[in-house]
Amino acid sequence: MSEGFDVIVVGAGPAGNAAAYTLARAGVSVLQIERGETPGTKNVQGAILYSHALEEIVPDFRKHAPLERQIIEQRMWLMDEGQACTGVSYRDDGFSEMPHNRYTIIRTRFDRWFSDLVRGAGAIVINETTVTGLLKDRAGRVIGVQTERAGGDVLADAVILADGVNSLVGQRAGLRADIKAEHAALAVKETLFLPKELIEQRFGVADGQGVVIEVAGRITHGMIGTGFLYTNRDSLAIGIGCMVSDLRERGIAPYQLLEGMKRHPAVKPLLEGAAMKEYAAHLIAEGGYKALPNLYGDGWLMVGDSAGLINGVHREGSNLAMTSGRLAAETLIDLKKRDAPFTAANLSAYKAALDNSYVMKDLRKYAAVPDFLHENPHVLGAYPSLLSGAAREMLTVDGVDKRTKQSRILADVRQKRSLLGLLGDAYRFWRAFK
Ligand SMILES: Cc1cc2nc3c(=O)[nH]c(=O)nc-3n(C[C@H](O)[C@H](O)[C@H](O)COP(=O)(O)OP(=O)(O)OC[C@H]3O[C@@H](n4cnc5c(N)ncnc54)[C@H](O)[C@@H]3O)c2cc1C
After folding, report:
1. Element holding 116 (H helix, E strand)
2. Which of 12, 31, 368, 431 has the fewest CB atoms within 10 Å, measured from its CB?
3. Please, which residues bridge with residue 184 across strands?
4. Cα 413 from chain centre
């Protein structure tokens, strides 16, 4: 055992905080190092909080966490350039009585709140300090971290890497490769101030209730990606993200897509009079199951975004981050109780716990989706456009009989996609998402 800490946690996002809090509460000595001025200042998220993951760590979080609105309605919009199919939505005012409900949050506030709990549980948290590398012994076992501060090397029996999507620390130490352009989305997000009453009027919700809108279709110019519009207490979060490889190939900047989305006739009235508060850009790991790095080794564990644990299909990330942080911490707690060393063989229990959880089960389920989207990019542009065209045709009452309209729609479909093409798309879609 080292003369330093039992565990060092690098990063104070949801993954790092979940790990540090779980460890500290169990009496393990923890040092958490965060490069931001305060936790959350460097972090970007939509942000939907999926409460189940937090409930497992802080069961009474609803009493004190800074929650914005409870989501009672989820809308899914398919957008063409000028039109939008806004018909798919699910509203349930009963969500508030359900245990695993969802909330919108603002990450700067949420991360700071979580970090206060970590400190309160007994961990030492140091902000404004960047971890620059990992210390290893002669056998290659991780024994601590290097920081940018003079004399800033710190020893520990284990290091948890929770340093986010780029994980420069993991890369420099040769624990994982740089994220590939075709495995990463670049998302931009604006927070726009809008008085609370206007939000409630425009989105049809009461005090404390919220709506989230997920957007797909030609809004991304046929590139793989999606947009979102979420309601906070007195602000809106609007964003859009596309694969870095697509953006590079097309020479399109993400902010151009965001401007396009804000100008869209279905979105513009919702933003009327809103004032810009904040602009942020961030990468999202979208490589899925097949792109996961090794998640543990002698003296180290990788959690959250740094391990690529993102479910891009359901737009979940922070919950996978918190669950993986908790499972990594529980693995270390269990080994410490048994006086078992933090060897790769012993830490493989973390991977087994992840495999047994929704985290890996979901990632495995959608393992084929990234390849499907790369090989069939037309599905994101062609089908929303066909749907919009069909809706426009059928809803225009212009004296043309409905059978003729139906034939026009079918002709449009056949012109854009052959029957074989349609069947092939349906089969490949089913295989990827089944
Ligand atoms: C635009 C956007 C919208 C999203 N929307 C949602 C959503 O609605 N719901 C959802 O669940 N997920 C969402 N996600 C994903 C979610 O944000 C991530 O999955 C989640 O933040 C991962 O948590 P983490 O702790 O692993 O990483 P992060 O939140 O990135 O935290 C990493 C931390 O490590 C620190 N750090 C990095 N390097 C170092 C270093 N060398 N030394 C010290 N500290 C370091 C960083 O400053 C940061 O605080 C979204 C992501 C984006 C970009």
Report:
1. helix 107-120
2. 431
3. 285
4. 34
The answer to whether 117 touches 14, Cβ cutoff 8 Å, is: no
Nearest CA to ligand 1 atom 38: 163
Per-residue model confidence as pLDDT tens digits over 10-52: 999 999 999 999 999 999 999 999 999 888 776 677 789 999 9
Question: In sequence order, what are the beta bridge partners of 285?
Answer: 184
- Cis peptide bond prior to 47, omega within 30° of 0: yes
Domains and CATH numbers, the chain: 5-66+106-177+293-356 (3.50.50.60), 182-285 (3.30.9.90), 370-433 (no CATH)
Asked whether 310 lines ligand 1 (CB < 6 A), one says yes
What confidence tens digit (pLDDT) does each residue in 74-124 have? 998 887 777 777 767 788 777 666 666 899 999 999 999 999 999 999 999
Q: What is the Cα–Cα distance from 409 to 173, expressed in whole angstroms?
A: 56
Size of the chain in residues: 434
Tell me what pLDDT residue 355 has: 98
State both tokens at 97.
């009585």
Please check whether residue 109 is in contact with residue 64, taking contact to mean a CB–CB distance below 8 angstroms: no
| pLDDT averaged over 10-residue windows placed end to end, the chain, 434 residues | 85 97 98 90 80 95 95 86 72 71 94 97 96 96 94 95 95 93 94 97 95 89 90 96 93 92 93 91 94 97 97 93 98 97 98 98 92 77 76 82 88 80 78 79
- Own/partner contacts of 413-420, CB < 8 Å, gap of 24 or more, are 413/386, 416/382, 416/385, 416/386, 417/382, 417/386
Cα 331 to Cα 9, 128, 306, 347, 359: the distances in Å are 14, 28, 18, 7, 16
**Is the Cβ atom of 33 under 6 angstroms away from ligand 1?**
yes
Cα 305 to averaged position of ligand 1 atoms, centre (Å): 6
With CA atoms as reference, report the closest residue to 366 among 418, 302, 289, 261.
289
Ligand 1 neighbourhood includes 134 CB (under 6 angstroms)? no
CA of 321 from ligand 1 middle (Å) equals: 8
